[in-house]
Amino acid sequence: MPTVAITGAGSGLGRALAKQYAHHGYKVYLLGRIGKKLHMVQHEILEDGGNAEVVLCDVQEYASVSIAFQQIGELDVFINNAGIGIFGAVEDYSLEEIEKTLNTNVKGTILTVRSALPLIRESKGRMLTIISTAGLRGKVNESIYCASKYAVRGFTESLQKEWEHESFSITAVYMGGMNTPFWDKTSHINNPNKFKGPEVVAKQIFEEDDGRKEIFIDK
Predict the structure, then answer these.
(1) What is the pLDDT of residues 112-147, one digit of tens each?
(2) Distance CA 24, CA 77 (A)
(3) What pLDDT score was predicted for residue 183?
């Protein structure tokens, strides 16, 4: 049975990806900080006849990430999905908000990719980094979020260069806004219901997960 590990698997796109891969026969490792949410997703997958295991992991903390991937053991696909956003004028952000966003989105990406690498190298597998169109262009009221996603894009593209002759791959995934709880704490998006649902996005990601350099849901 092929295996996939997904960070931020307790809600939104992470949850949808977990259910999509499980539906297609993958054992899914559900990574995240909040056990209750992860166990709910696990229950949904098991109810559908799938296979899922909860692995608590705070992507901001090296020890937590290291222990999580030691628990996983063998891995065919790693999806770096965990991310948070803050929205508003740049002068209104607190230092704590800025640090949390950069630590989760940038540091978290680096730490998890480093820990997943030996497993993916061994299996000749695939990594996918969920970047979003915030890594392609600047957006009003999203300066710190865009800064973090540009950093993740640069990191991913650099690894594609480093690993171009290797037997494993890393894919950059770009999508626009989705109709998820991501927007719950901001009013600068008037109607999140106009966005694609995470299930639609997850289905396309699964279908195009073949080691290509980029997956564009939106441009």
Answers:
(1) 999 999 999 999 999 999 999 999 999 999 999 999
(2) 13
(3) 43
Tell me the domain boundaries of the chain.
3-216
Q: Which residue has the tokens 């997850």?
A: 202
- If one looks up domain 3-216 in CATH, what number appears? 3.40.50.720
Which residue among 26, 29, 145, 174 is the active-site one? 145
Cα–Cα distance between 141 and 193 in angstroms, integer? 19
Give kind and range of the element (H or E) at residue 135.
Answer: none
pTM above threshold 0.85: yes
Quote the pLDDT of residue 83: 96
Question: Distance from first CA to last CA of the chain, Å, rounded?
Answer: 34
* Core vs surface per residue 174-202: b (16+ CB within 10 A) or e: bbebbbbebbeeeeeeeeeeebbebeebb
Helical spans, DSSP H, in the chain: 12-23, 35-47, 62-72, 95-102, 108-123, 143-162, 198-208
Instruction: Give tens-digit pLDDT for 188-204.
Output: 545 555 557 899 999 99
Examine the residue annotation and report whether 145 is marked as an active-site residue of this protein: yes
